[in-house]
Design a protein that fits this description.
It comes from Paracoccus amoyensis. The protein is α+β, with helices and mostly antiparallel strands. The chain is built from 2 helices and 3 strands. A 3-stranded antiparallel β-sheet has the order 2-1-3, with helices on one face.
């Protein structure tokens, strides 16, 4: 008898007011100061989203000062 494949957990991409990104399991509450970006997905998909979107690691306030 084959074993069932365990379901992959869903993750979500979070972003804070400084433009920093994070990854959180979908079943965890979103911490204060963070908002969900996009829809829950696999960890791999979420990491790809972060790599695509977060191309400048400087916080938003530093980007504004240096502009």
């Amino acid at each position: 008898m084959t074993q069932p494949i365990p379901a992959q957990p869903l993750w979500r991409v979070l972003r804070n007011h400084e433009g920093r990104y994070s990854l959180a399991l979908f079943h965890h509450d979103i911490p204060a100061g963070w908002q969900q970006i996009g829809m829950p997905a696999s960890k791999t998909d979420c990491l790809q989203r972060i790599a695509q979107d977060w191309t400048d690691m400087r916080p938003n306030n530093l980007k504004e000062i240096m502009a």
